């Protein structure tokens, strides 16, 4: 089965390379960005400013070689790519939660961003704690792993 996903905008951030981009936006609250939604999709942003956080779905357009099992940013042992958030994945789709600071027409100002500058935007969804938070969720293999602000090999 083949399908096509249309780019709906572009994500702007201060991060021009993987070596300076945070692994998770929550670890970099000072990371400020802009989400530019193409004008033909502006109507789809109606009432988005009522949410404090949003999911951004985007294309990992500079991710690198796809490997189905590999070490991750949190662990040197290999894990299946579907059991990790590694950017090198079969469909190259990324997902981040960012704080929505403001909406100005078709531009969303955000913080806590962990996405490279000029990344293609595929979709936006509101983060709704009532639906998205699961109190009984487990951390899987990540449980007990030390947080690294920057993965090894990044400066």
From TrEMBL:
All residue ranges annotated as the TsaA-like domain in the record: 5-136
Matching Gene3D superfamilies: YaeB-like
Keyword S-adenosyl-L-methionine on entry: yes
NCBIfam families recorded: tRNA_TsaA
Species: Candidatus Electrothrix marina
InterPro entries: TrmO-like_N, YaeB-like, YaeB-like_sf, YaeB_N_sf
MF terms in GO: methyltransferase activity
Keyword Nucleus in record: no
Entry superkingdom: Bacteria
Pfam assignment, any one: TrmO_N
GO biological processes: methylation
Keywords of this entry: Methyltransferase, S-adenosyl-L-methionine, Transferase
Family the UniProt entry places it in: Belongs to the tRNA methyltransferase O family.
Entry protein name: tRNA-Thr(GGU) m(6)t(6)A37 methyltransferase TsaA
């Amino acid at each position: 089965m083949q399908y096509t996903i249309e780019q709906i905008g572009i994500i702007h951030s201060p991060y021009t390379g993987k070596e300076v981009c945070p692994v998770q936006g929550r670890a970099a609250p000072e990371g400020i960005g802009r989400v530019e939604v193409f004008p033909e999709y502006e109507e789809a942003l109606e009432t988005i400013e009522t949410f404090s956080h949003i999911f951004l779905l985007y294309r990992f357009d500079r991710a690198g070689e796809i490997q189905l099992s590999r070490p991750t940013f949190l662990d040197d042992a290999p894990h299946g790519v579907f059991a990790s958030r590694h950017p090198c994945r079969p469909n190259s789709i990324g997902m981040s939660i960012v704080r929505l600071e403001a909406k100005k027409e078709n531009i969303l100002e955000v913080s806590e961003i962990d996405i490279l500058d000029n990344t293609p935007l595929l979709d936006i969804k509101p983060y709704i704690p009532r639906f998205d938070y699961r109190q009984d969720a487990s951390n899987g293999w990540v449980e007990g792993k030390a947080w690294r602000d920057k993965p090894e090999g990044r400066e």
